[in-house]
């Protein structure tokens, strides 16, 4: 089977990464490869929403940790808006606190930046067709997570929620937490809402107290 024959329309893309060198490299790769067309770029998740809205691409290559607006929040917003574009995460991070939120937010696939170019091209084609693509490392993590018994409900904070709670315990503000974790303040507030619900508390001080009492904070 021949992929992307000359008669088929090119797969259109938007590149989202805070490093210009990375965006330039990706643009060069896809411009040189038949069957692809790069429509636009963005340096963070907030700008990505505008660029995707204007260009309506088939696929968005999305980094995750970006100053000015992270990828997970952008993916969730694109999903909420019912965007046609499929989001393929392309990042250097493969921890549970990165992979799971991205996939739960609506990402079609998840690749690491050390993937060979042919694997990246194949992943974009698969994403455009609506097929899920996961790097081997990420697929292994997800399988391990699925097979691991869940923690008791009272301490079942996600890795990201624990990070947020640790920073709250240090007296860090929402804005400072957002900068530290490369996420938006809105995402910080969402994590806090989840933390309060899971710990049965109503404010930051109570959450910290319960966190210490239950051993979550050491």
Percent helix among the residues?
A: 40-55%
- Overall geometric form: elongated
Sequence stretches where pLDDT stays below 50 over 5 or more residues? 1-5
Order of helices and strands: EHEHEHEHEHEHHHHH
Number of strands: 6
- Spatial ordering of strands, largest sheet: 2-1-3-4-5-6
Number of helices: 10
Q: How much β-strand is present in the residues?
A: 5-15%
Describe the biggest sheet?
6 strands, parallel
SS class = alpha/beta
C-alpha Rg (nearest Å): 19 Å
> What's the rounded overall pLDDT mean?
88
Distance between the termini: 56 Å
InterPro entries: CheY-like_superfamily, NreC/VraR/RcsB-like_REC, Sig_transdc_resp-reg_C-effctor, Sig_transdc_resp-reg_receiver, Tscrpt_reg_LuxR_C, WalR-like
GO molecular function: DNA binding
Domain HTH luxR-type: 150-215
Domain Response regulatory: 12-128
Task: Fill in the keyword field for this structure.
218 residues, alpha/beta, 6-stranded parallel beta sheet, 6 strands, disordered N terminus, Sig_transdc_resp-reg_C-effctor, Tscrpt_reg_LuxR_C, DNA-binding
Explained architecture:
The protein is an alpha/beta fold and 218 residues long. 52% of the residues lie in helices and 13% in strands. The chain is built from ten helices and six strands. It has helices spanning 20-32, 45-55, 71-81, 96-105, 117-128, 136-147, 159-169, 174-181, 185-199, 204-213; strands at residues 11-16, 36-42, 59-62, 86-91, 109-112, 133-134. Strands 2-1-3-4-5-6 form a six-stranded parallel β-sheet, sandwiched between helices. α2 packs parallel to α3, α3 (71-81) packs parallel to α4 (96-105) and α7 crosses α10 (204-213). The longest helix has 15 residues, at 185-199. It is elongated, with a radius of gyration of 19 Å. It holds the Pfam family Response_reg. Residues 150-215 form the HTH luxR-type domain. This is DNA-binding response regulator.
């Amino acid at each position: 089977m021949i992929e992307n024959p000359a008669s088929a329309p090119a797969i259109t893309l938007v590149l989202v990464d805070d490093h210009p060198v990375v965006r330039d490299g990706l643009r060069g790769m896809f411009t040189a490869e038949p069957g692809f067309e790069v429509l636009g770029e963005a340096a963070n998740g907030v700008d990505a929403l505008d660029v995707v809205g204007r260009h309506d691409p088939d696929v968005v290559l999305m980094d995750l940790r970006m100053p000015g607006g992270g990828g997970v929040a952008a993916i969730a917003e694109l999903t909420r808006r019912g965007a046609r574009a499929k989001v393929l995460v392309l990042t250097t991070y493969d921890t549970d606190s990165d992979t799971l939120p991205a996939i739960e937010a609506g990402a079609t696939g998840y690749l690491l930046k050390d993937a060979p170019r042919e694997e990246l091209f194949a992943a974009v084609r698969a994403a455009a067709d609506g097929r899920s693509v996961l790097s081997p490392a990420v697929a292994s993590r997800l399988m391990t997570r699925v097979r691991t018994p869940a923690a008791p409900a009272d301490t079942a904070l996600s890795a990201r929620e624990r990070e947020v709670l640790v920073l709250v315990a240090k007296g860090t503000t929402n804005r400072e937490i957002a900068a530290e974790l490369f996420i938006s303040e809105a995402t910080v507030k969402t994590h806090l809402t989840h933390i309060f619900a899971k710990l049965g508390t109503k404010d930051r001080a109570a959450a910290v107290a319960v966190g210490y009492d239950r051993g979550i904070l050491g």
